[in-house]
Design brief:
The protein is α/β, with parallel strands linked by helices and 336 residues long. An eight-stranded mixed sheet has the order 3-2-1-4-5-6-7-8, with helices on both faces. Strand 7, helix 7 and strand 8 form a beta-alpha-beta unit. The chain has two domains: 178 residues, NAD(P)-binding Rossmann-like Domain (Rossmann fold), CATH 3.40.50.720; 137 residues, Orthogonal Bundle (N-(1-d-carboxylethyl)-l-norvaline Dehydrogenase, domain 2). The protein contains 15 helices and eight strands. The structure holds nicotinamide-adenine-dinucleotide and SN-glycerol-3-phosphate. Nicotinamide-adenine-dinucleotide binds next to helix 1 and helix 4. The site of SN-glycerol-3-phosphate has 13 residues, from helix 8, helix 10 and helix 11. Catalyzes the reduction of the glycolytic intermediate dihydroxyacetone phosphate (DHAP) to sn-glycerol 3-phosphate (G3P), the key precursor for phospholipid synthesis. Its EC number is 1.1.1.94. It holds the Pfam family NAD_Gly3P_dh_C.
Length: 336
């Protein structure tokens, strides 16, 4: 059934997801705070800063006024960077007139609180103002979804009916959605893979080969799972789309902003310079800080994440860091 949907965040991912929804016949409005970008979406049907050469459906409307955008919608999809989730949720809650389904497709952990995004949304949008909160996550670069390349991702909610509602909204011949009830596992896999992608890019930038890439992905998955399980996740979720699947795509694709940022760091560029040139969100940088703090608090060993933290926040030399991690005390692969 045709649904009215507000998409908040007209960056690469918000635009690609809004395009899928509009192509599926839904009434979609895309909200952002850059008037010229919304004007471009409405007149030229493009969003050239984020998705070059992609033509958007004419039915997809850009909307500058948040209140108008969320008026009477069946669902609201949050796709702003993690650092903006709480602020945007607060803006939304004061303007809600009905009880929409809340969906989010962002990947990260909140700075300071270390909360998952769905936790922030549940905290800010009280139950009487919304239906469930559903997480959308998996191996999916916006650039490929926007040209209808085949993609599979996960819709997660403890209420499977809500996850199935979201599955139906998005499913089509190039975009396949699976459901999952392990929200913690799906969100932690999504957030933490960006840290490992930074490392995988750095390894490439330093000139190491495929063995090193396989090593960081495999041992990275081990530490993602360790922290995720300590947070309450089902370990099996980490070999699914939102875990291993997303780790593979982010650690191997040139589309990945996290991988590209890591590659530049490996080549000796400074973090500030890398982030300035990227022009889009690189979630792994702030997630590294939140993950290290959380791992220390929960007493979970995360040597790769700690090493990347040293490079990002303590000015450690990336070349030396790569050597040092290889020379840590020997251990068994079976130690979880
Ligand atoms: N790009 C992808 O392929 C992809 C895929 C899956 C998930 N994600 C996740 O989606 C989230 C968004 O990523 P993206 O790639 O679209 O980022 P982006 O940098 O391309 O775009 C971010 C958008 O959010 C807007 N924004 C930022 N702060 C805002 C605020 N306070 N209020 C309103 N709008 C604000 C920006 O104007 C921009 O339109 C991230 O968490 C990312 O990890 C991205
Ligand atoms: O471009 P990245 O590194 O933010 O990754 C995008 C998506 O999360 C890949 O699934």
């Amino acid at each position: 059934m045709k649904q009215k949907i507000a998409v908040l965040g007209p960056g690469s991912w918000g635009t690609a997801l809004a395009k899928v929804l509009a192509e599926n016949g839904h009434d979609v409005r895309l909200w952002g705070h850059e008037p010229s970008q919304l004007e471009e979406i409405n007149t030229k049907h493009t969003n050239s800063r984020y998705l070059k050469e992609v033509i958007l459906p004419e039915s997809l409307k850009g909307e500058a006024d948040l209140e108008t955008c969320i008026q009477d919608v069946d669902a609201i999809l949050f796709v702003v960077p993690t650092k903006a989730i709480r602020t945007v949720a607060r803006q939304v809650v004061s303007k809600l007139t009905n009880r929409p389904m809340i969906i989010h497709a962002s990947k990260g952990l909140e700075q300071g609180t270390h909360k998952r995004i769905s936790e922030v949304l549940l905290e800010e949008i009280s139950e009487n103002k919304r239906k469930d909160v559903v997480v959308l996550s998996g191996p999916s670069h916006a650039e490929e979804v926007a040209v209808k390349d085949i993609t599979t991702i996960t819709a997660a909610c403890t209420n499977l009916e809500a996850a199935e509602y979201v599955q139906k909204l998005f499913m089509n011949s190039y975009f396949r959605i699976y459901t999952n009830d392990d929200v913690i596992g799906v969100e932690t896999g999504a957030a933490l893979k960006n840290i490992i992608a930074l490392g995988s890019g750095a390894i490439h930038g330093l000139g190491y080969g495929d063995n090193a890439k396989a090593a960081i992905m495999t041992r990275g998955l081990a530490e993602i799972s360790r922290l995720g399980v300590a947070m309450g996740a089902n370990p099996m979720t980490f070999i699914g789309l939102s875990g291993l699947g997303d780790l593979i795509v982010t650690c191997t694709s040139v589309h990945s902003r996290n991988w590209r940022a890591g590659d530049l760091l490996g080549r000796g560029h400074k973090l500030d310079e890398v982030l300035e040139n990227m022009g889009m969100i690189v979630e792994g940088v702030s997630t590294t800080k939140a993950a290290v703090e959380l791992a220390r608090e929960l007493k979970v060993e995360m040597p790769i994440t700690e090493t990347i933290y040293g490079v990002l926040y303590e000015n450690e030399d990336v070349k030396k860091a790569a050597k040092n991690i290889m020379l840590r005390n020997s251990k068994s692969e079976k130690e979880f």
